[in-house]
Task: inverse folding
């Protein structure tokens, strides 16, 4: 039903790409939208923003880091195997328009989500400056693809093994000083989006972030993905997943992402024990 | 005749055997255990077989109640099920979740002086008997008409429409957003009130009749109604329910541990979080739980929390006992299981710890004032009566609104000011040609059987359209 037709490992096997047959979704999906996936009948429903779609081939691509039991299950599936469920396209598409000079900031697997948006911004005629960050050079993904859709590409690593030794925010500050930037799109870990937004707010530069809170249905039915934006409660699944970066309550989001920490650990431990046996 | 009537009134109404409260409050197995054939026959023999049965008038789908009860008296239990199926595609469900006390049983003549016939128990008995035996023939399907109908949503109204139209010879496909069909019957109503195996069996009967089900299909996102018409569907029925939870907009409502009833129940029921870690989806297991609201969904949430191991569960409601909207049976079951009702109390705000987890809820005490627009006495806050209830889990169960996902993608369907679809009160026709709607998306949150009643009427209207014209 939702067959994996291509599988690649990245970042030393910690990040996995799946291209999945989902013709109805592929026909409709736009950059910025997400799908909900379930590995098997007993599995959890996991939201992931699509990294790519191929309407002609009828496939969608997701890229995820193996962090818990559900992504571990995803990662174990091979080409030819099926996901139990894939639902989408969900959420609002990114509003892509010509602004002038824009900056795209990506971290971790957020780079995968950022790629189609960056491509869209470039195709419509923006000058795109891209800043990518990772812990070290081995964990960096999609550098070549991002280079192709960017006018300028900056790489930052926490350990200095590649590019700038430091955070994406260091480079961003520099770029904002030198250039007249009309829009910043930041997608990555919550702290990254928080600090990028802090800097751009001071400069008054419009900023878009894409949020990935815990969800169940992804259609507005459960409200588990509540986020505070500008003091108002929004559902990331239907009102987002993209929001004005200056208005998001990142601390609340970080806390809510920890809601099931002990359960997640238990699930993962049982999963690992079973593997040992 | 006079003698038999007296005798029938004297036979006491059957008592449904149940799991004892002490045991069931910690398990997810069904609470009522069902009648034995002997009990069913004794109860069925209480029915007066009225010439003008008021019970049938009380039933939104006009089940031939005296007819199926008479089959039970005769010992023809399968015949009873067949009689039920003539009007009701989901008798095992309705026997469990219908509010019989305000419908069929509420109209029963025996209820005027004594207790009404236990119609719900008998319906459940017949449907369960037939399902467990598995020998009952499927209804006959009319010759194929060549017409295609898309049913959006696989809840009670969608299933009714699908069942009615497949039997009339149309080609029917149900589109369901979740990975499993049943709608509120699988995500909302807990296992201990409606075992999911029963829903699966009723759905599989429809599939045996030829109904196709496309799960994982969010109409409005995966495919639009206009695209369904382009794909060759001749008519569309929208029965997507009231899928947008209402919150109270209180300070602290986004703390970890504050849930909508929809999320809490969907995790537990559909995703089977009560079986975590065998199933992967977790749900918060509260020690001290508060449930806000007092409807049937609130009772489901409260009883679920108890089964998930809570030490205390409090239902907090701003009006008094008399105004609690849940069925009497649900309130009774909840109280038996040790759930506390904190009445005339209104939540004001939630408190959290440094990790953003819920640790308390401030409330105000209320008193009843003058009647409001609903005719119920308006609760008025007592100044200075604030106090805090310690809690680590709160389930907000104050109703749901229509989900705009499908209607936003279909602008020709007119909505009312609350976002519900405007549909003809009898036929269910919407303002878009070839599209019908029914159930909670039209009425706002209501009952399973009312949604089924709307489905029945719409199915008749769709059949007329497909065979005669709009």
Result:
């Amino acid at each position: 039903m939702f067959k994996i037709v291509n599988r690649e490992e990245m970042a030393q096997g910690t990040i996995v790409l799946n291209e999945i047959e989902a013709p109805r979704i592929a026909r409709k999906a736009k950059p910025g939208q997400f799908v909900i996936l379930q590995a098997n009948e007993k599995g959890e429903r996991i939201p992931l923003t699509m990294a790519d779609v191929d309407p002609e081939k009828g496939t969608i691509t997701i890229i995820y880091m193996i962090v818990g039991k559900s992504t571990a299950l995803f990662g174990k599936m091979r080409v030819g195997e099926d996901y139990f469920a894939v639902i989408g396209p969900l959420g609002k598409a990114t509003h892509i328009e010509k602004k002038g000079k824009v900056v795209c900031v990506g971290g971790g697997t957020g780079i995968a989500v950022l790629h189609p948006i960056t491509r869209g911004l470039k195709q419509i005629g923006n000058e795109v400056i891209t800043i990518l960050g990772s812990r070290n050079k081995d964990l960096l993904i999609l550098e070549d693809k991002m280079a192709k859709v960017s006018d300028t590409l900056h790489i930052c690593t926490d350990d200095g093994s590649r590019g700038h030794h430091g955070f994406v925010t260091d480079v961003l500050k520099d770029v904002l000083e030198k250039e007249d930037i009309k829009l910043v799109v930041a997608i990555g870990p919550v702290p990254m989006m928080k600090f990028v937004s802090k800097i751009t707010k001071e400069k008054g530069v419009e900023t878009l972030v894409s949020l990935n809170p815990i969800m169940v249905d992804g259609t507005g039915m459960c409200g588990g993905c509540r986020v505070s934006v500008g003091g108002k409660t929004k559902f990331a699944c239907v009102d987002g997943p993209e929001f004005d970066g200056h208005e998001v309550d990142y601390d609340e989001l970080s806390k809510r992402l920890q809601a099931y920490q002990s359960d997640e650990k238990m699930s993962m431990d049982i999963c690992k024990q079973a593997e040992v046996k | 005749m006079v003698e038999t009537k007296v005798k029938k009134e004297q036979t006491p109404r059957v008592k449904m055997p149940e799991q004892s409260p002490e045991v069931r409050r910690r398990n997810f197995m069904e609470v009522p255990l069902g009648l034995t054939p002997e009990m069913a026959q004794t109860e069925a023999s209480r029915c007066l077989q009225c010439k003008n049965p008021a019970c049938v008038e009380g039933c939104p789908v006009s089940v031939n109640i005296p007819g199926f009860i008479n089959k039970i008296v005769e010992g023809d239990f399968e015949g009873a099920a067949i009689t039920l199926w003539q009007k009701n595609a989901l008798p095992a469900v309705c026997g469990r979740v219908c509010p019989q006390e305000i419908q069929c049983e509420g109209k029963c003549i025996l209820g005027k002086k004594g207790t009404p016939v236990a119609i719900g128990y008998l319906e459940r008995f017949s449907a369960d008997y037939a399902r467990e035996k598995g020998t009952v023939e499927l209804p006959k399907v009319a010759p194929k008409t060549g017409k295609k109908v898309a049913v959006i949503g696989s809840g009670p109204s969608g299933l009714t429409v699908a069942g009615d139209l497949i039997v009339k010879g149309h080609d029917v496909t149900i589109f369901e957003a979740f990975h499993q069909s049943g709608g509120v019957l699988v995500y909302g109503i807990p296992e201990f009130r409606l075992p999911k195996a029963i829903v699966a069996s009723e759905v599989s009967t429809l599939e045996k009749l030829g109904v196709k089900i496309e799960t994982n299909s969010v109409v409005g996102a995966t495919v639009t109604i206009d695209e369904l018409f382009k794909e060759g569907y001749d008519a569309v029925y929208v029965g997507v329910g009231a899928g947008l939870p209402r919150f109270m907009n209180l300070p602290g409502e986004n703390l970890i541990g504050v849930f909508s009833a929809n999320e809490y129940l969907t995790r537990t029921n559909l995703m089977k979080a009560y079986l975590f870690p065998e199933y992967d989806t977790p749900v918060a297991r509260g020690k001290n739980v508060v449930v806000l609201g007092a409807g049937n969904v609130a009772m489901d949430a409260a009883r679920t929390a108890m089964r998930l191991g809570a030490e205390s569960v409090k239902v907090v409601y701003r009006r008094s006992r008399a105004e609690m909207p849940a069925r009497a049976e649900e309130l009774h079951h909840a109280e038996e299981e040790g759930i506390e009702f904190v009445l005339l109390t209104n939540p004001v705000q939630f408190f959290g710890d440094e990790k953003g987890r819920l640790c308390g809820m401030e409330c105000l005490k209320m008193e009843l004032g003058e009647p409001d627009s609903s005719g119920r006495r308006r609760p008025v806050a007592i100044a200075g009566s604030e106090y805090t209830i310690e809690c680590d889990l709160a389930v907000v169960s104050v109703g749901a609104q229509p989900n705009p996902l499908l209607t936003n993608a279909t602008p020709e369907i007119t909505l009312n000011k609350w976002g519900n679809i405007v549909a003809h009160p009898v036929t269910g026709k919407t303002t878009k040609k070839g599209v019908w709607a029914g159930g909670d998306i039209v009425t706002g949150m209501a009952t399973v059987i009312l949604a089924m009643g709307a489905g029945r009427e719409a199915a008749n209207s769709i059949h007329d359209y497909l065979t005669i014209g709009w």
